[in-house]
């Protein structure tokens, strides 16, 4: 018998391409086009490197307290991890141990099925409707847990909190995870529901709205009991998950609230302007409440547009998957970047139309 017969095999998540050429327009991984808050740089410059010889605070107390204060929670209701991927993965491992399948949409963040396969968790994908909306009725049945990204990715569609509350209320025997990676770009958060529902876990990240994807900070909020169980698993896995530089930078970011609001406001304004121009160019898309737009063109295939953009050093995201193979996910960059992309698309599509006729 080969040693390979004992290997845990899984089809891994495929992250967006990270081109080494810095002179590209990079709109493929939903990063924020603006730098982190000024206080973050100041905090990092002030770090005493002597602290790096010691282990960091395993409870991440400073950052946990800063986040708890911002969201009006107790520190016992906040869990911090190395990006929301780490937090979500730990949550799957902690809360989804039933023989019943967990439920999540068929079109959503593609790490969910990877974690389910990795941890041997049974799951069922619930189809989005024709407008890429989640149907709450699909989640009002027996299950071992529920995960919903809101706004959803890669569609950008936001589900009203009142509908999510119906799902949470109808599933007291399951943990319901609401993944709010993009909530700061226009949606209403489910955090206020935490006080009403012990089975609700809400996750957020510093990677999008706080411009800190490279620092890897994510967090979860829930009842004290949920967070307690999550910490038990974390401390059974790795006590020192968050490094001191990340903790210090994270606290500084939370304390720079005005900058945070200014940056998210800029991204939202650019997104809305981009929607108008894309529509004028013949694209259709669900109404996005995120920092990206999920767009399909009237007569030019998405894969063709993806390839020609890439050839011209413009990176967007494309999946060759059922139902979404003719869509591109276009992250929102600066006004200058979006103008360059839209001007290029206008020229390309005009030439296509001329050749067609």
Q: What gap, in angstroms, lies between the N and C termini?
A: 64 Å
**What's the order of the H and E elements?**
EHHEHEHEEHEEEHHHEEHEEEH
Beta-strand share of residues: 5-15%
Structural category: alpha/beta
Q: What's the main sheet like? A: 7 strands, mixed
Query: Which radius of gyration do the C-alpha atoms yield?
Result: 21 Å
Strand line-up across the major sheet = 2-8-7-6-5-3-4
Number of helical segments with 4 or more residues? 10
Give the total of beta strands: 13
Low-confidence stretches: none
Tell me, rounded to a whole number, the average pLDDT.
96
Helical residue percent? 25-40%
* Shape designation: globular
Descriptive terms for the model:
10 helices; 357 residues; four-stranded antiparallel sheet; 14% strand; 37% helix; single chain; alpha/beta
Task: Characterize the structure shown.
- The protein starts with 24 loop residues before the first strand and ends with a helix.
- Strand 9 and strand 10 form a beta hairpin.
- It is built from 10 helices and 13 strands.
- The strands form 3 sheets. It has a 7-stranded mixed beta sheet, with helices on both faces.
- The mean pLDDT is 96.
- With 357 residues, the chain is of the alpha/beta class.
- Helix 1 packs antiparallel against helix 7 and helix 3 crosses helix 6.
- Helices cover 37% and strands 14% of the residues.
Element layout with pairings:
Layout: E1 25-26, H1 38-45, H2 61-71, E2 78-81, H3 83-95, E3 102-105, H4 112-118, E4 123-126, E5 145-149, H5 161-170, E6 176-179, E7 200-205, E8 218-222, H6 224-237, H7 244-255, H8 257-280, E9 283-284, E10 292-297, H9 302-311, E11 314-315, E12 317-318, E13 328-331, H10 335-356
Helix pairs in contact: 1-7, 2-7, 3-6, 8-10
